[in-house]
Amino acid sequence: MPALTELVSQLPASIPAAILVVQHLAPESSGEALVNRLAHHSQLKCQLATDQTFIEPGHLYLAPPDRHMLLRENRLLITKGPRENGYRPAADTLFRSAAVSFGSNVIGVVLTGLLHDGTAGLEFIKRCGGTAVVQAPYDAEYPSMPESALRNVDIDYTVPLAHMGGLLVELTNNQLPPQELAAIPKDLQTEAAIAERVVGTINEVQEIGHQVAITCSDCGGTLWQLNQGNVLRFRCHTGHAFTAEALLDAEQSSLEETLWVAIRMMEERKILLTSMASRGSGSWGVQQEERAEELKHHINRLREFLLNGSSNTSAKQASTE
């Protein structure tokens, strides 16, 4: 929010563009409080996005908590569709929808943030003839979102936050070429329709990707690797979508959770074997004690693996931040 607040304070009310904002929010958070905060620092007319609202220049629309914000022609669509990259609202969802609706008249902006949301979305915008802008990583409090975009997409402008408002004013005041709907890639049109819940069957997903031996970390369904674009991406037919990096992060979390459950079950088995050994006699009791001791070694190795993995992940995130 501090970066977003600084940016909107630089934009005049006369800017000839609508400003659509996705901020990663907790589902129970108050969107109205954030809108009021933005309005206090901005000349724009700020409002929480509502379904079927017609967008207007000089207005800022903030996606509500736990809802995707989409565009169909000049109207907002607010949906509780499947998460993308683990987020709802997601920047990728908005960027794709805007690119399909407005083609070359879209400017996508990625500010400071964690992980990878917005990377694929900027590529969607570029493929439809639009412009991609990111905050310079050295200027970002959390540079991983800008860095991800720069690694994967041909970015048009990389600027510090202090210069971004002026750049956006300049870009929006330049005469843009007319939108060419025929140039909008068919696969992005299909994905935009899936996000609107118009389609989403296996047949539609098969048209834009090929099935792979990986399951969706959100619903457990089959994933398709999408055929177009430079950003490696995956989608299931229910609508969940991931970049490869986001899917890797999600799989890591699922794996860790599974292994902790395994440790709990092994600990319970060890306790049971120990109880059996204490009540047994002779070779049978010794056998149960040996089984319990062997299980203890497995538990310790698995626990060490998990703790080392958590330490490495924390160190990596700290270095990124």
TrEMBL record:
This protein's UniProt keywords: Hydrolase
EC annotation from Swiss-Prot or TrEMBL: 3.1.1.61
Entries under Pfam families matching the protein: CheB_methylest (PF01339)
CDD domains: CheB
Keyword Hydrolase among UniProt keywords: yes
Domain of life: Bacteria
One cellular component term from this protein's GO annotations in UniProt: cytoplasm
Reactions performed catalytically: [protein]-L-glutamate 5-O-methyl ester + H2O = L-glutamyl-[protein] + methanol + H(+)
GO biological process, one term: chemotaxis
Molecular function per GO: phosphorelay response regulator activity; protein-glutamate methylesterase activity
Transmembrane regions listed in the UniProt entry: none
Domain CheB-type methylesterase: from-to ranges: 1-175
Annotated InterPro entries: CheB_C (IPR035909), Chemotax_prot-Glu_Me-esterase (IPR011247), Sig_transdc_resp-reg_Me-estase (IPR000673)
Entry-linked PANTHER family: PROTEIN-GLUTAMATE METHYLESTERASE/PROTEIN-GLUTAMINE GLUTAMINASE, PROTEIN-GLUTAMATE METHYLESTERASE_PROTEIN-GLUTAMINE GLUTAMINASE
Name of protein: protein-glutamate methylesterase
